[in-house]
Structure formats: structure tokens, C-alpha cells
Amino acid sequence: LKHTVKARLTTDGYAEGILRGDRIILGQAITLIESNLSGDRLLASDLIEKIIGYTGNSIRIGITGVPGVGKSTFIEAFGKHITSFGKKVAVLTVDPSSKLSKGSILGDKTRMETLAKNPMVFIRPSAAGNKLGGVAAGTRDAMLLCEAAGYEVIIIETVGVGQSETTVKSMVDFFLLLMLAGAGDELQGIKKGIMEMADAIAITKADGHNLEQAYKAQTEYQHALRLSSVSKSGWEPIVLLSSAITDLGMEKIWNAILEFRNKTEDSGYFSSNRKDQDVTCLHEYFNMLLNSDHERFTNLQQAVKRMEDKVTGKNISPRAAAQKLLEDYHRAIRESTD
Amino acid sequence: LKHTVKARLTTDGYAEGILRGDRIILGQAITLIESNLSGDRLLASDLIEKIIGYTGNSIRIGITGVPGVGKSTFIEAFGKHITSFGKKVAVLTVDPSSKLSKGSILGDKTRMETLAKNPMVFIRPSAAGNKLGGVAAGTRDAMLLCEAAGYEVIIIETVGVGQSETTVKSMVDFFLLLMLAGAGDELQGIKKGIMEMADAIAITKADGHNLEQAYKAQTEYQHALRLSSVSKSGWEPIVLLSSAITDLGMEKIWNAILEFRNKTEDSGYFSSNRKDQDVTCLHEYFNMLLNSDHERFTNLQQAVKRMEDKVTGKNISPRAAAQKLLEDYHRAIRESTD
Prior knowledge:
homodimer; 54% helix; globular; disordered N terminus
């Protein structure tokens, strides 16, 4: 049987390749999941069902921080530290603002040059997309595929602007906030509520001349965190110093994550949190499907255009027009067969 | 025919009362619109259709600023100024964080004590609610009712935290940002992008010892605004000083709003912007309806519960579960009669 290089695999083919840890097939499967073609979507769903039983055996770590805090440099050093124990690490990026598609993959790989060459590490930036919902869904499924492929540590990096932190928080076990020791106004640039989400804060670039300032910031943040209410996890957030130059903090941060896992597994929070996340995720997917389902019906799209005209002509209020569109949608479903 | 005091009016009764400017009936109609009872919703839709032809004849002004900037005090002074020309003013508040219901009405009226007693002024805080979408829809409809009741100036106040500014911006003609002349870090507390939405900035409390700082801040803000890109309206945003004690700025701000209206009516922007807002609003209502429509079906709610259990038991992925729920929803619509 002749093998065609460009032939698309069956979902069984993808699943089998992923389960034996084939990085190329893993990459292709993530591309399939990110595809907007309806045929691909069915394949993607099918694939996820085939591997769902093999997922969950990882620690999921979210990492955020404002631009300039040194996320890539940190992840390079941190990823290297983790792989030194023989652990396989996958790095995924959520960046809803990214307009690049294939370019961004190259861009991100260049950003984490050493890590990208490490055979224990799989790096994959998010697909381009403007809708955070879609990007988040893709990242979540990519995470499941990586777990099925045997990656024991999943790092999800977010760009640190807008809503993406909340989205990442909703899919990870441990949330790490990177901060710079600034001059004076330490909290600037950090959206309200982000600090409250953190299980740990790492102060980056804590080396050389910065070291003294970093120690000062550590005391301040630790104080600020003590003032905030206790998290549902029962875990008390910690503040650590880190340096990608001296490797300061890498061991402590990894140990803190392991301690977090041990404690929360014992208390039952680890598993109950994941279940809560899955339920939230189900509702988000369902809402996404509801919001896009009507786009299937050509007639309905024409009705939308007609209603827009009526509304701008003040022949009908937006409220009543929306109600009529809902009735049109019901009719379209009744007349359809699937 | 004996008139029962507590009897609910027909929609014709409401419409007729609103069109002759009856404030009590206007207030009752807004309560009707904010009601979540499905019977009330139908009445509300019906009422809006009856008055839609009488709406639009106002200037719609959004006002925002961080807590403590003096929004109520500003609106008291500004509202008084506008009514001195014989203009009727309605003040609506969007506050999705408010947990109060009837209490908040009293609270807000107390905040604007003098204005509340002015017969030319109608003050109405938003209904309590956690979902910004619902609160926004209610405020938008309340605005239409006020217009039908002859209010020529609609002020929509927002609390200045979170997403509510964007929502208010999407329903007004002119967006006014209130700012304090602070010590040093002028932009603190203002979310990125809010300044770019402003058609004017008013620096509040520009009196007594604050006056010098206020002048300095005016120069700084004006400079910052010049650096930002030109708005679609063609209007160049201005920065003014204001004081509720000395009435400084009230005339200038009102004149700027009138100039804005003249210029944008001439350029066609005023009307095209409102049409764009109506179309956006239609889509938002439609999405709201789509997201809540499935809640009508008891069977479907039971299916949701079952799917949640399957998902947490890892018997199915959230993605596939959502797809199955969509199919259940389709089936429920096919089997229903409306």
C-alpha cells in the first residue's frame, strides 16, 4: 500500500498517533481542531471523544503578566527546569488579539528558542482569531490532545490584556502571575482582580541591580495577598523571586506547584475544581453553538438583513425585530431535517 | 366607570399616558419593561411598538467616571443648567453591580436631591440585575419611553467600572468622561480605551485650591487626546473644567454638546451612528433571546443536568455534550407549537 504524504488521517489514525506521542500528528490534530470547516469540526469532535478517556493526567499551569514582564524568558527557564526531572512539557498560548496565523507559530517558536529544540517540549501558540470564545475552546481541546500524548505538565500562557486571564484561569489547576519590581507604583498595569486569581506571584528579572527592589516588592505583594480573602482551594498564595539568568526561583516555584497539587488532591479541591471547570465549559460550548447555529440557514440570514433595514427605518424596534427573528429561527429548525 | 387604583393599564393606556408626559405612568411603564415575568415581557414589547414612532427626538448623553469623581454632584449642576432653558431632562443610571431593587431608586433620588424635586426632570436608576445585557436592554427601552414622554435631553450615567461604559457608549450620541485632577498619576483608575471613547472630558471639582491642578490636568489631557486617532464622528474631543460649587463649565459643556450635534447632523454622522447603534442592538437582543430560549423547555433543562453528570464523569467531552444539547434543543422546538 502506497503512503500518500499529504493524505488526511482518519480520526483513528490521529488518535493512535497522539496516544503514542507522535509530535507531528499531535500538531496536525491541533490544526484540525482549530479549523472552521464544518467537515473538520465533525472530525475534531470525533477525535476528542476517542481520546477523552486518556486526558486529565497532567498538572495544568496558567501563566500571565503584562507585556514586558518576560513571560517567554521565564517559560524558557522554567520549562528547562521541569524537563530536567524527565517530565514532558507542553506550552500553549492564548492570544485572542493575534492576527497572525502561520506566522505566529514561527514567531513564538523563535521567542522560546532553546525550549523549542528540547525533545521533551511541545510548543504551540493559539490559532489566530478574534473571538476569545473560539480561541479558548481551541486551546482547551489542544490541552486535552497534549495530555493524551503524554505531556505531564501543560503551561498555558496568556498575553495579559483583557479577558484572557479569566479564560485561562477557568481551564488550569494553578495560576501563576508574573510581575516586575517597578519603581513605586507596583500594581500599575495589573487589572483589578487578577492578583486575587493568582496561586503564586513570581517577581521576574530578580537579578543584579534589580535584586534589592525585587525583595522589597516581594514583601509588599505578600502583604497585599494576605489582605485578600482566602481562596476556595484553601491554598495560601505565595510570592517568589525569579530570574531566567541565575535560575533563581525555578525550583521553589515548581515545588510550590507540587505542594499545591498534593494539598488540593488531599482536600478534594483538585478534582472538584476540574469538575466545575468541565461543567462551565459545557455551558460555554452550548452558548457558542446556540449563537452560531442560526448562521446555517440562508433564509434566516436574509431575514436578518431585512430586519436591519426595518429597524434603521424605525418601522420596528430592535426588541420586536429580535423576537421576530427568533420565530424565523424556530421555523427554520422545524423545516430542516437534522 | 369606577377607576381601580391598582389596576394594571392596557398598553394603550400606558402609551397614551406616556405620550402626554405623565410621569407616574412613565415610571410604571419602566417598571413593566424591567419585569422578568413573561406576560409582562409581551406587554412591554407591545408598548415599545406603540411608542417607537415617537422616539429619537432627544440628545442622548452618556456620563462616566471613577467612583469619587463626583458624578451625581456634576449631574445635579448640569441638569439644573439645562432645565434653565426650559428643556426636559431624564437621568437614567446603568449599574450592573447594583444588588438593590426598590432601595436603589430611593438611594439615587437622595443622591440628586435638588434635581429630583425639579418638575422638568425625571430620574430613574436602573433595575437591579447581574447580567449587563439585561440591564442595558432595560435602560435602552427606558430611554425610548422617556423620549416618547417628551424628554429632550437623556443623561445615562454609568458607574465607571467594568464593561458598562462600552454599553452606554453604544446607546448615546455624546460621551462625557468626568475626571479628577489628581496628584501626579492622572490616568490611574481609568480603563484603557475609555478616554478614546470620550467626546469631551470634564475635570470635576475645579474650584478653590484645586483650580491650579485642574488647569494643569486640562493641558495634559488635551495633549493626550490630540495623540489619539480621530473619531469616526469627525469631532475633536475637548477638555473642560467644571465645578458644581461655582457652576464653572456647565455652559461650555452644554454648548459643546449642541455644537457636536449641529456638526454631526450636518455631516450625516449623527443619524448614521444611531442607525448603526440600532442594528447592533438588534443583534444583541437576538443573541440574548437565543441564549435564554432553551430555558423554556423543562425536558431540556433535565438533559442539561444529565450532560453535566456525564461530563464530570468523563463519559463525554464538554464539546460533544454541548453538541448533543443543541440537538435536544432542536427536537424540543420541533415538538413545540409556538
